[in-house]
Amino acid sequence: MATFKAAYQVLADSLAERGVDISAVKKALKAQWIETPSWGYADSGTRFKVFRQTGAAHTTKEKLQDAAQVHKYTGVAPSVALHIPWDKVDDYAELSAYAASLGLKLGAINPNLFQDNDYMLGSLCSPSASIRRKALDHCLECVEIAKTVGSNNISLWLADGISSPGQDDFRDRKHRLQDTLHELYAAMPNPMRLLIEYKFFEPAFYATDLGDWASSILQAQKLGPRAMVLVDLGHHPLGTNIEQIVAFLIDEGRLGGFHFNNKKFADDDLTVGSINPYELFLIYNELVAGEQDPAVNMDVAYMIDESVNIKPKIASMIQSVVNVQEAYARALLVDRKTLKEAQASGDVVKAEETVLSAYRLDVRPLLAAVREEMGLAPDPLAAYQASGYYEKVCQERAGTAAGGYGFDGA
Amino acid sequence: MATFKAAYQVLADSLAERGVDISAVKKALKAQWIETPSWGYADSGTRFKVFRQTGAAHTTKEKLQDAAQVHKYTGVAPSVALHIPWDKVDDYAELSAYAASLGLKLGAINPNLFQDNDYMLGSLCSPSASIRRKALDHCLECVEIAKTVGSNNISLWLADGISSPGQDDFRDRKHRLQDTLHELYAAMPNPMRLLIEYKFFEPAFYATDLGDWASSILQAQKLGPRAMVLVDLGHHPLGTNIEQIVAFLIDEGRLGGFHFNNKKFADDDLTVGSINPYELFLIYNELVAGEQDPAVNMDVAYMIDESVNIKPKIASMIQSVVNVQEAYARALLVDRKTLKEAQASGDVVKAEETVLSAYRLDVRPLLAAVREEMGLAPDPLAAYQASGYYEKVCQERAGTAAGGYGFDGA
Amino acid sequence: MATFKAAYQVLADSLAERGVDISAVKKALKAQWIETPSWGYADSGTRFKVFRQTGAAHTTKEKLQDAAQVHKYTGVAPSVALHIPWDKVDDYAELSAYAASLGLKLGAINPNLFQDNDYMLGSLCSPSASIRRKALDHCLECVEIAKTVGSNNISLWLADGISSPGQDDFRDRKHRLQDTLHELYAAMPNPMRLLIEYKFFEPAFYATDLGDWASSILQAQKLGPRAMVLVDLGHHPLGTNIEQIVAFLIDEGRLGGFHFNNKKFADDDLTVGSINPYELFLIYNELVAGEQDPAVNMDVAYMIDESVNIKPKIASMIQSVVNVQEAYARALLVDRKTLKEAQASGDVVKAEETVLSAYRLDVRPLLAAVREEMGLAPDPLAAYQASGYYEKVCQERAGTAAGGYGFDGA
Amino acid sequence: MATFKAAYQVLADSLAERGVDISAVKKALKAQWIETPSWGYADSGTRFKVFRQTGAAHTTKEKLQDAAQVHKYTGVAPSVALHIPWDKVDDYAELSAYAASLGLKLGAINPNLFQDNDYMLGSLCSPSASIRRKALDHCLECVEIAKTVGSNNISLWLADGISSPGQDDFRDRKHRLQDTLHELYAAMPNPMRLLIEYKFFEPAFYATDLGDWASSILQAQKLGPRAMVLVDLGHHPLGTNIEQIVAFLIDEGRLGGFHFNNKKFADDDLTVGSINPYELFLIYNELVAGEQDPAVNMDVAYMIDESVNIKPKIASMIQSVVNVQEAYARALLVDRKTLKEAQASGDVVKAEETVLSAYRLDVRPLLAAVREEMGLAPDPLAAYQASGYYEKVCQERAGTAAGGYGFDGA
Q1: By three-state DSSP, how is residue C260 classified?
Q2: I need a surface site. Which of A44, D184, D304, D379 has the fewest CB within 10 A?
Q3: CA nearest C316 in B: which residue?
Q4: What is the mean pLDDT of chain C?
Q5: What is the pTM of this model?
């Protein structure tokens, strides 16, 4: 702790010397808002095995309790995304009140368009009109839930696609999607937004109906200004420059939100920042540039979407939130004036070193100081682990039958 | 049918003109042996959903019945791989006799080293000695089953790996694997073989203990001559030249077998030959070259490993067998003398055109003729679909509770 | 030859039985138009080495002479794309007349925006206004050339990008591009089209300004209806479903043309169809579906773009043209009525087999018949190789100094 | 500077508290040895363009002068790799003495097996016996040069491969390579080592004869204990876990050396650590673990291999050296005792956080302190840029004709 304070002082002095307004940086860090997903607190797995974890949440209320722990120790995770029907309840107003009692808000509503035998050949793109209707009705139900709980975001991950060449017609499917989305969008009251996710592949293995950001933004354009694109960090081909896509979406006014996680290979859903933390920083570098650009209007939902299968859920979620905080903190410390000048003059080494210089900073002391000012412990993971919560829920939830949640393969 | 015969005559005349011994080609095609997997007849899915199919097999005997259909119509699928415990029975001798009564043999035994909560951090590579022991004991049980059913192949797919940097020590895990495999190999009587599969990623998402053919062949070298490498066509990074790996394994005397399927992205487990049939042909081009090379000793288990989730299982398996037959037929028709001469003289265009020329052949008439000589219908898929078997099992198996088999995510 | 005729008869009978109007198929094949690139006849190489080939063309007129050979033997390659300044001449009208004297037209004009030291940090996106001006002026010069030679296509491959994180600002570069393209488009008279290519990476290795079809179509939308997207088959991440992108571009009315080649890894520029001929067929399957759809207006420039470095240039180009012909022929033979019905009813196996059934056809006899009706030899490659042209130019061009053309790394 | 010292004090205190022997860490950092490549100081490019830089080195002596600058400011780059014939001179003893006069040693000798028209179809694997002989003789010449200059490393990058299916026989080529390498190895006196590089693809685009570490280690095994594998960080398929390969090569006793650089897509040859610095750290994490493991014998040549085309060469090389230093420094600060305990107990979060904790450190103050103790300026890049050397050589070398060096595409 003494070390943190000394390190913070050195950092603060150095930033002051550079003319950085550290209070503005701290203010931004305190205002950060990272939504965690209800399904991140439940058991999850791969197609080969769902590993059951003692202590994992079984009900939506348990998931909210666990999410409240993440917010309690980080201070920046005040909302929780729901997935329907995994989080289906009889009374959403009551659920919303329960969340509020834990200091939480209910966030994006995620319809499930993949976990029904009817969706074998697609949902909103299915060749069957009645199945498209069913899928659309489910989405409309989610709009109603969003209204009830006061959420402004419908997160649409469309798992539709085909797995054999010839299986279905690409253009027919595109038109079916345009039609169903049109009806969905029409049912969404202002300011509710449709966040259209895309994904390179899986669960379809030959073609995905929304397989890249082109597919998503083209659909969004046809719908209207509240149709936006959602970027999941694991949903691109290897090598894709995600930070550039983020910048382009900002420029087109269509960046609606993120599903944060990390990948080494495919949609691995690993802890965000755990494979290439520099990439996460470079993404935040674009986000901060957008925030600070008066010509840009940003309205971005920052959401974590992870199914880390073999780490304890809450500890892993705290890791994720902290990794995102660090990326944001470093991005806030980029010397943008020097950067712009170096870029304009074609000084590639200086431009790169300017970005790197912020990345190389150890921002833990800064975040510790911010947390202290927020009345939190300087190290959220350590504080959570010392709290005994995990041991308590392991005991309480042992023997409970696992309920209808998460990626259960069933 | 008339068309097939006329087309065959044209093809046969053309081959005769080139000096091809068509009876030898037919003999090879009749002797082809493609093992199908018991799990290919049961429900399967992705991590998001197991789509339940009416008519899918629920018990091992049902799987064998379905496999017998594939053999009945193709004539080249006389054995079935088992997966333990999905195919666990009380009396393996009885199961073997049952298979024989259907005209089948039991083939490779596949231990399951991934579907147990204990294996969360690994099986044969686990940091826990007792879990390694458990995994090894399961493998030894499979050796006993193999002895009982007269199988000479243990197919070892090791799902072990880690999903976070730092999670475990790479070299420690490698040594644990060497030690457990050593004990396993010692328990395997001659001529039983250990087929060591490798896979780029999944279910581990940061590193896999046997992630490439280097890892597998290095382990095989330490064990002995009956330790071989198993090539699954979906287990490589995109772009990998699999036919070259096959040629190199032949050259090193370590090609033990295949798991046939196809991929567009990752381990998609699609119908073999359905994404890039030319690649499958080029692999067979190496296999035929090996078969015809007196300096080479080939002992290869040709096995299908697919979990096509949305096509009816038996029809899909017949498609797969036919695709493999076509690849083999075309490879048998490569003019190898011309090819060698073109290669030796550096005539790249001629060498390529020689290979292409065989690939461009429509070999359906040839395979129809072969089937006719084997007493089979010329078109296996059509014959199967006309047989009423599918409708029969859909009726019989409807309402049956799905049993403990397949990738059920549970 | 006798064999070809017999095989054709069998094929024709079989198609007639299916009700196929073979004369319509032949008519389409005779009308096929595949543009070859001037630079495909000159020496080319990798960054490591340009392999000098005896007989390669050194001047634009030599390139046209070689292209005329390809058209002479295939009958479907009547135009040649030019690359400026590689094909810079004093009198383009004279060049156009020379082409006409060889039976050729001059096709797409390709500006060069990468081979000048000034373009180190970009051309149309450069941070320097004067360099952007220079690049734009070069493009405007190409528009003038296109007017002179009667070409309606400007093929814009923008090599711009950055190779270090932070090097330049993504959004600034995007705006510079919008501005320069706006001026370019304004200078292009109707019906001249701007074909906007995209490429995943290379020569920039961190980000490319037009890196995917999203980037290209968004620019095209801002320009107008004659701004279209150009699809180069080697410019996508591995695994990308190109046929789906083609279908989507058709649907959006923005498919402007192709650069045909093939890849196994990156932008390998290999002979089109040489790595995955099934993929090429599936792309043509979409193109034929578009052609036959009355709701769709297709205006597509089919162009080859290859730099096969180690095969003789003309022979290799003939291989390419033939591969494209085969893909088109097979796609024309898909039973679209059956396919649509199978797709609509969700019969995945039947839909796939319908497509496969056309692909499995050996269309060489059909193409031989088409060529015969066009007064050509049945086997273009063999006829060209027997002509002595290659030996003649090897002798004539030996010792000639290689001129300023092609990918010379200089 | 004051800041650096204060920051160092905080870091040193914190490490002392943890019981770290900081003098041992500093000693290791002072002993680090990073070889830079002669070709890294000359112009280079892509296949599209070699960008000429004012001030780039034209002769081998100029390259050595520039390399001496890198060593002068970093203190850890005392040797230079040569590439023959780019660095061919009449008198290698004189060159060696010249290097010594600059405070440098001559390092690994790199034969060139790709830049000769004869190598169009391969060098050591060519179907032509006389071309194989020529390539082998060139390698033997390099062995003689190595003897003369006192170098113990022959770095063998074999660019051989094929670009068309069928072009040549995989197994024949493998045997040719075995034979030629056997003769080469026999000519190399103890303790000279053969470092066998591998590369996924390029310049061959269908198959590479040494395409992965399996191919290299299998060749090394056949040769003897001084045949080792060389790992180039840009030579793997995307997603490959390089740190695992490094660990496995250490375990097999075959890790011979590195070619450091970084990639986002393919063999991009970017500044090492510039795309994923965490990966570089994880590789060093394995190297430090090996260094500290008494059971392991490490003899690794750490070499940079970059062709950064658009950054000034010397500044870019200093960036690279510093990035490698930072990776090593952080890896030295991993708490290995805690890590091993967490791994052994299966505490995934703790194991990961232990590794991350070292990575998050800002090690610039530590390296500044080390440099100060070595008599160097704390910031090598700033010191070099302030020295005026770049401006001086830009003036001196302007107008000089560029010589026969580097990737000139010619």
Answers
A1: strand
A2: D379
A3: B349
A4: 96
A5: 0.98
Chain D residues near residue C117 by CB distance under 8 angstroms: 51-52
CA end-to-end span of chain C = 47
**B32-334 CATH fold:** TIM Barrel (3.20.20)
Which residue of chain D comes nearest to B162, CA vs CA?
Answer: D348
Residue D408 confidence (pLDDT) above 50: no
Question: In what helix (H) or strand (E) does residue B66 lie, and over which residues does it extend?
Answer: helix B60-74
Burial C218-230 (b: 16+ CB within 10 A, else e): bbbeebeebbbbb
How far is it, in rounded angstroms, from Cα D298 to Cα D260?
18
Contacting residues of D for A11, CB less than 8 Å apart: 7
Q: In chain B, how many H helices and how many E strands?
A: 15, 10
Q: What token pair was written down for B162?
A: 């880690």
User: What is the pLDDT confidence band of residue B400, given thresholds at 50, 70 and 90?
Assistant: low
What are the residues whose beta carbons fall under 8 Å from the beta carbon of A164, sequence distance 6 or more? Answer: A206, B270, B271, B274, B311, C348, C351, C352
Task: Please give the distance of CA A231 from its chain centroid, rounded to a whole number.
Answer: 8
Report how far residue D332's alpha carbon sits from residue C21's, in angstroms, rounded to the nearest whole number.
75
Cβ separation of C277 and B274 shorter than 8 Å? no
Report the DSSP pairing between strands D44-45 and D50-51: antiparallel
Question: Tell me: the pLDDT tens digits for A255-310?
Answer: 999 999 999 999 999 999 999 999 999 999 999 999 999 999 999 999 999 988 89
Q: Which of B307, B284, B166 is nearest to B234 (CA)?
A: B307
What is the Cα–Cα distance from D160 to D203, expressed in whole angstroms?
8
Q: Which two structure tokens, joined as six digits, stand for C409?
A: 């790394």
Torsion sign across C-alpha atoms A253, A254, A260, A266: negative
- Domain ranges in chain C are 32-334
Task: Give pLDDT, residue D319.
Answer: 98
Show residues of chain A in contact with C215, CB under 8 Å.
Answer: 248
Which tens digits make up the pLDDT trace of C329-343? Answer: 999 999 999 999 999
pLDDT tens by residue, D259-312 = 999 999 999 999 999 999 999 999 999 999 999 999 999 999 999 999 888 999
The 3-state secondary structure of A333-378 reads CCCHHHHHHHHHCCCHHHHHHHHHHHHCCCCHHHHHHHHHHCCCCC
Pairing mode, strands D161-162 and D207-208: antiparallel
Rounded to a whole number of angstroms, the distance from the CA of C343 to the nearest CA of chain B is: 13
B43 residue type, one letter? D
Say whether A364 and D360 touch across the interface (CB within 8 A).
Answer: yes
Per-residue pLDDT at B353: 98
| Tokens standing for residue D368 | 């500044």
Contact flag A285-C166 (C-beta cutoff 8 Å) = yes
- Token pair, residue D62, equals 């100029």
- Inter-chain contact B214–D214, Cβ cutoff 8 Å? yes
Write the DSSP string, B320-354. Answer: HHHHHHHHHHHHHTS-HHHHHHHHHTT-HHHHHHH
Q: Measured between alpha carbons, how far is residue C179 from residues A341, B38, C223, D301 in Å?
A: 21, 61, 10, 50
Residue A154 near residue A111, CB atoms below 8 Å:
yes
Q: Which two tokens stand for residue C68?
A: 């005329």
Task: Say whether the peptide bond before residue A203 is cis (omega within 30 degrees of 0).
Answer: yes
